[in-house]
Design goal:
The protein is an alpha+beta fold. Helix content is 36%, strand content 18%. It has a single domain, classed as C8orf32 fold (Roll), CATH 3.10.620.30. The protein has a 4-stranded antiparallel β-sheet. A two-stranded parallel ribbon has the order 1-2.
Length: 233
């Protein structure tokens, strides 16, 4: 981080209600995965892979309650959807002394299952989450969403990260089919705009959640595997 950065830049290093980078769980996770790393770039890269493959992606694991969006709780649970995984990466980065912020955008998601599309009634996923890290004197966008085994089930290339260039979703999968499109940018945030996300999710996906904020049950991994096998039949 450059000393010439404005004072409010420090905002992206501070723990918050949701990005609780000072919690014992986040601090321990960060120390474990950055042990021996001297440069911020190496730390950022290590944390990206730790979150990408260490926390299972599960779009059926969205609970619209504040505690479910807290980094330490997500880490303890070991699974979450795109925003949840982006929150953990942001928290771990801050714990490592790397400024971070949460990015949100609407995406047209072609990596989905038949059941999930039927429930959502659209292929647009609103308020998709990614993380921005301040590395090598500039902000880089990175998406730790899809873990390695899930990418293999869908036939999608895993995202790699070198700490210097943006690492967002590939527009095409391994076979050249369209995979992910960004259609609207909602900006970046020092903390999670929970009420905003919850309100839009309830409005856009009314069949997704119960009155208590619980989501319909399902196994994304199993659905992906079944559809992959049908496609090979």
């Amino acid at each position: 981080m450059k000393k010439s950065e404005p004072e409010d830049f420090q905002t992206y290093l501070k723990p918050t209600a949701f990005i609780d980078s000072d919690s014992p769980e986040i601090v321990s996770f960060t120390r474990t995965h950055t042990a021996g790393a001297r440069e911020d770039i190496e730390k950022g890269v290590r944390l990206f892979y730790a979150v990408r493959d260490g926390i299972r992606y599960d779009p059926y694991n969205i609970v619209l309650r504040p505690e479910a969006f807290k980094a330490s709780n997500i880490l303890k649970k070991g699974s979450g959807y795109c925003v949840a995984k982006a929150i953990v990466l942001a928290a771990a980065a801050r714990a490592a002394g790397i400024p971070s912020r949460l990015g949100l955008a609407d995406v047209r998601n072609h990596l989905s299952t038949e059941r999930l599309r039927r429930i959502m009634k659209t292929d647009v996923f609103t308020y998709h989450g990614f993380t921005e890290l301040f590395l090598d004197d500039h902000w880089v966008k990175v998406t730790p969403t899809f873990h390695l085994s899930l990418c293999e089930r869908f036939g999608v290339k895993t995202l790699e990260f070198d700490g210097r260039k943006d690492s967002l979703f590939h527009p095409y999968d391994a076979k050249g089919n369209r995979h992910m499109e960004y259609v609207r940018d909602h900006g970046t945030f020092a903390d999670v705009p929970f009420e905003r996300i919850a309100k839009e999710f309830r409005r856009i996906y009314p069949e997704f959640f119960s009155e208590e904020g619980e989501m319909v049950a399902g196994s994304f991994d199993e659905e992906a595997l079944r559809e992959r096998k049908r496609g090979k039949a």
